[in-house]
Structure to design on (337 residues):
């Protein structure tokens, strides 16, 4: 980190290499467009490089980086405008006949995730994809810890409702 | 489906439905692992480093352009000021002596009569206006002003394009 802050490119390349997968996963799910996510990931790392001297080393680097990624994704979603989904045409993935495969559940979860509000989606991704605590989610999203917890809770309930509606009932 | 995953799915939905938040949190963590990972295109670190190099090159080019504009404006101002001094140097020299003498006489009279600050400033203004209100000085001042304004505009354009790109 010290080398990268001093402007050393190999050190920054190492940072990009280390964080490209989590940043890409987050952005791909946020914007639901792999090509756009690629561009946004590049933009995120460029912004991070330009702002490295503002990074407080007392903070967790990933929280700081994900905050940049979050803001970049939100800006891109604003530019793109709202995507209207008709309630009857929601891309729900129903459960296939037994034996049910994990991939089908994964796709159903992905579809439910895509229908969440961007800030709820981000909170879910940071919590369950990155394993962040509520405090870290708050730090990355620029919201209080309590709000982060509320976002995760609400988002999870909405996803449960979406899955149930699509026919995924608990045993 | 993996029986553990099926059980976790049931546990999550049931826990969320009955408000057992911690249990729902833990169970959902297990279920969420089923979500497919997006494919990762290779070469992102290289593309980021290339973009950084392009940015650095652009910055250097803009800095060079700003320096060139500043230098050209400075040289133009110097040339104009030099031409002005050469063309009106002798007249300015005698004007300055005349102004000095008249100023000294007027100031001593003003002190004797006890004139106020505004009267003194007004008189200085009138004398300066008399010097400036000649075609030569007016043209030279307008020329210097225009070159200065053009230089400021050029610098502002160069700097704003740099801000937009960063």
């Amino acid at each position: 980190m010290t080398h990268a802050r001093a402007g050393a490119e190999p050190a920054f390349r190492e940072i990009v290499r280390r964080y490209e997968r989590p940043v890409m996963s987050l952005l791909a799910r946020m914007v639901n467009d792999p090509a756009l996510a690629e561009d946004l990931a590049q933009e995120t790392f460029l912004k991070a490089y330009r702002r490295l001297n503002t990074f407080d080393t007392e903070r967790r680097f990933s929280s700081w980086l994900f905050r940049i990624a979050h803001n970049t994704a939100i800006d891109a979603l604003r530019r793109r405008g709202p995507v209207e989904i008709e309630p009857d045409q929601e891309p729900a993935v129903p459960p296939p006949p037994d034996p049910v495969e994990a991939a089908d559940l994964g796709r159903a979860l992905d579809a439910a995730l895509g229908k969440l509000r961007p800030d709820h989606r981000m909170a879910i991704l940071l919590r369950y994809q990155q394993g962040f605590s509520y405090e870290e989610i708050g730090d990355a999203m620029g919201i209080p810890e309590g709000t982060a917890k509320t976002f995760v809770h609400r988002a999870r309930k909405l996803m449960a409702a979406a899955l149930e509606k699509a026919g995924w009932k608990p045993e | 489906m993996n029986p553990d995953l099926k059980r976790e799915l049931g546990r999550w939905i049931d826990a969320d439905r009955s408000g057992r938040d911690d249990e729902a949190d833990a169970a959902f963590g297990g279920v969420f692992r089923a979500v497919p990972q997006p494919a990762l295109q290779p070469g992102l670190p290289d593309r980021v480093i290339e973009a950084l190099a392009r940015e650095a090159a652009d910055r250097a080019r803009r800095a060079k352009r700003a320096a060139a504009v500043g230098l050209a404006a400075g040289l133009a101002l110097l040339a104009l000021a030099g031409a002005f001094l050469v063309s009106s140097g002798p007249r300015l020299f005698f004007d300055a002596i005349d102004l000095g003498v008249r100023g000294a006489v007027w100031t001593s009279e003003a002190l004797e009569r006890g004139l106020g600050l505004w009267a003194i400033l007004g008189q200085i203004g009138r004398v300066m206006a008399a010097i400036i209100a000649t075609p030569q000085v007016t043209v030279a001042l307008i020329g210097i002003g225009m070159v200065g304004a053009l230089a400021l505009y050029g610098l502002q354009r160069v700097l704003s394009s740099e801000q937009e790109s960063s």
The longest helix of chain A spans residues 9-31. Helices of chain A lie at 2-5, 9-31, 34-50, 61-80, 102-114, 118-129, 134-141, 145-165. Chain A touches chain B through 46 residues (CB under 8 Å).
